[in-house]
Structure formats: C-alpha cells, structure tokens
Amino acid sequence: MAKIGTFITYFIPYTLLLYLLNKIIINHFFYDLKLETSIVSIYLFLFIATLIIYIFLFFVNNKYPEKTGFAFLTSGLLKMMASVVFLLPLIQSKNIVVYDVIAFFVPYFLFLIFETIFAVRLINAR
C-alpha cells in the first residue's frame, strides 16, 4: 500500500499543477475561448481514470506480477474507449473546434506519461 501512497503524493500535485497551468494558458492566451467540455470535467475524468488504473495495476502486480504489463496495456485500451465515450457529445457535435480536441488530448497524454512512468516503476520493482 506504500506504493499507492507514493503514487498519490506525486499524482495530486501533478494534477493540480497541470490544471493550473492549463487555466493560466487559457485565461492568458485564449481568454475569449468557449470550450464545449469544461476543463474541470476533463481533469476530473483523467484523474479518476488514472487513479483507478494505477490501483488496478498495483493489485495485479501483487497477485500476478508477470501479468502487470498486459494489465497496463488492457487498462490503457479501456481508458481510450472511456475517453471516446467521454468525448461522444463533442464527436457528435456539428461544429468541432480544434481547441476542444487539444484541451482534452494534451492533458490525456500528459496523464498517460505520468501513468506509464509509475507503471514501469511498479513492474521493475519486482
């Protein structure tokens, strides 16, 4: 359980920092920008998804350490499918603006990088 605690102690500040940077950039450079999906909902979705995936990987690693990599790949695929469901209103919208897509996928990949670093640490710890 110490590994989950370590993950959370890095993950919460990382999320808050990304969120604040995102808000500063949008407020400074794109102050008149109206996004279809709110920044808060994007970060909340990515935060919860990444946290669930890491906790899942932790339990898989404890029970079946040789299957952790496969669990990571599977959970990444499920996260991608959940992202499509999350973005479905935007996808079905008649006027898709590139800013809406960027507002989701930049944090998505930053969260994925963070998740991958900790998953690799978890796999290599054995």
Written description of the protein model:
This protein is mainly alpha-helical and 126 residues long. 83% of the residues lie in helices and 0% in strands. The chain contains five helices and no strands. Helix 1 packs antiparallel against helix 5 and helix 2 packs parallel to helix 5. It is globular, with a radius of gyration of 16 Å. The model has no long low-confidence stretch (mean pLDDT 90).
In a nutshell, what does this entry contain?
The protein is an all-alpha fold. It is built from five helices and no strands.
Q: What fraction of the residues are assigned to beta strands by DSSP? A: under 5%
Counted beta strands = 0
Tell me the overall shape: globular
Helix content: over 70%
Subunit organisation of the chains: single chain
Question: How large is the count of helical segments?
Answer: 5
Helix/strand order:
HHHHH
Taking all Cα atoms into account, the compactness measure Rg is 16 Å
Largest sheet: none
Content-based structural category: mainly alpha
Distance between the termini: 15 Å
The poorly predicted ranges are none
